[in-house]
């Protein structure tokens, strides 16, 4: 069975989706070796989280925090998955209007509670995405897929 990269995201303006699409483009280079599953945060649950071997979270920065939909996903899955996903490799994409630090801090803190392992520095794209930011998102997607494919995560 192929490793599964679960990409959970929320977007209102479409900017987070641009980052997610770039990450998918990067991960898709290894589509023969890694299954890529894209899910909206509000439609993602415990079974999805339990079935993945890697997680990529995409969120806008809303009022200096992650989106409510991503927070809802994390809240709904935390206790049912508590202690069951220790070591899960994850990465984070944030589309920000400010500096994105509040969203990053909050998700990193929750990820620590889950016992997840960050495998890339969070990408914070401030304002309209640049080609450089989209290239970074593609690299994160490639990294996640390659790490899962090789079994190094």
Automatic annotation (TrEMBL):
Domain Flavodoxin-like: from-to ranges: 5-153
Q: Which regions span the lipid bilayer?
A: none
Taxonomically, the superkingdom here is Bacteria
| Stretches of the chain forming a coiled coil according to its record | none
Protein's UniProt name: Flavodoxin
Q: Which UniProt keywords apply?
A: Flavoprotein, FMN
**Gene Ontology molecular function:** FMN binding; oxidoreductase activity
């Amino acid at each position: 069975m192929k490793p599964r990269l679960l990409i959970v995201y929320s977007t209102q303006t479409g900017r987070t989706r641009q980052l997610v699409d770039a990450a998918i483009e990067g991960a898709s280079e290894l589509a023969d070796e890694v299954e890529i599953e894209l899910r909206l945060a509000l439609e993602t649950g415990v079974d999805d989280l339990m079935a993945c071997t890697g997680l990529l979270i995409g969120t806008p920065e809303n009022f200096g925090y992650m989106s409510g939909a991503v927070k809802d996903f994390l809240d709904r899955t935390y206790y049912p998955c508590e202690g069951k996903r220790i070591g899960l490799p994850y990465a984070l994409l944030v589309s920000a209007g400010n500096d994105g630090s509040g969203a990053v801090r909050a998700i990193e803190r929750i990820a620590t509670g889950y016992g997840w392992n960050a495998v890339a520095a969070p990408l914070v794209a401030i304002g309209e995405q640049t080609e450089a930011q989209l290239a970074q998102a593609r690299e994160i997607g490639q990294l996640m897929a390659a790490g899962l494919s090789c079994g190094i995560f």
